[in-house]
Structures are given as structure tokens and as C-alpha cells.
């Protein structure tokens, strides 16, 4: 398992940009597929984006494709989510998650992730 700590959330106006980060502990970060999920008030947590542990392929929810970019820096044990053209419906708590050697086909499945951060609040005002 890894310990995950998110940062970078905040308040932004619609159309603006924000980058959230997730720092992971441990020496085997490169072996983990990483993902971002979010939970809006009164709604269930949903998949946002993920990056495969081998080769860095990415997967996105349809609602964020073309606006959000997930990336990772294995030397810094950190995964990022760059969010552009933010809309009020992007508001929520953003959670970082990790799963060792998770296959690409399963990246979107919340149940496959065993390590979670505490979440960071992102609020988009209209």
C-alpha cells in the first residue's frame, strides 16, 4: 500500500483552470496505476481520470475528456490532474487513488483501488 496526500484544490471561476496534486509515499510508486475520482454533494463518487502504471496510457471519463489531463512524475512520486475550462458541475471533493499493477481495462473501477487520499475540495463558481 501507499500513503496518498492530495493538494491544490480551491475556488475558481467557471472557465478557469486548476491543478491538483497527489504525493505518494513508498519506493514502488512506478508500479501503481493512479486515478482521480470525485464526489459532488449528494452524489456518489465517480471516476474522473487514470494513468496506467506501465507506459503511462491514460483513461478519462467522457465528461472531462479534452478538458482534464492526468500525468505522473515517478521521480517525485506524484500524480497530477490539470483541469481546464472548469464548470460548476466539476465541483466536488477530488480523491487520489492507487492500485498496484492494475490493468488498463480496469482503471475506471473504484473497487479496484486499495489506497485513497483524504481528498481535496474543488469549487467552481458560475
How is this structure best described in words?
Helix content is about 0%, strand content about 50%. It is built from no helices and eleven strands. Strands 2, 4, 5, 6, 9, 10 and 11 form a seven-stranded mixed sheet that branches. It is globular, with a radius of gyration of 13 Å.
**Mean of pLDDT:** 96
SS content category? mainly beta
Give the proportion of residues in helices: under 10%
Work out the number of β strands: 11
SSE pattern? EEEEEEEEEEE
General shape: globular
- Sheet having the most strands: 7 strands, mixed
Ends distance: 39 Å
Content of β-strand: over 45%
Radius of gyration: 13 Å
Question: Unreliable stretches, pLDDT < 50, 5 or more residues?
Answer: none
Number of DSSP helices?
0
Amino acid at each position: 500500500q501507499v500513503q496518498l496526500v492530495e493538494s491544490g484544490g480551491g475556488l475558481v471561476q467557471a472557465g478557469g483552470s486548476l491543478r491538483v496534486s497527489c504525493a505518494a509515499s513508498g519506493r514502488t510508486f512506478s508500479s501503481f496505476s493512479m486515478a482521480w475520482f470525485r464526489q459532488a454533494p449528494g452524489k456518489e463518487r465517480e471516476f474522473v481520470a487514470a494513468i496506467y502504471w506501465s507506459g503511462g496510457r491514460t483513461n478519462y471519463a467522457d465528461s472531462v475528456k479534452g478538458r482534464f489531463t492526468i500525468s505522473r512524475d515517478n521521480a517525485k512520486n506524484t500524480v497530477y490532474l490539470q483541469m481546464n475550462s472548469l464548470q460548476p458541475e466539476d465541483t466536488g471533493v477530488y480523491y487520489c487513488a492507487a492500485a498496484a499493477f492494475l490493468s488498463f481495462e480496469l482503471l475506471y473501477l473504484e473497487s479496484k483501488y486499495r489506497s485513497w487520499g483524504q481528498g481535496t475540495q474543488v469549487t467552481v463558481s458560475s
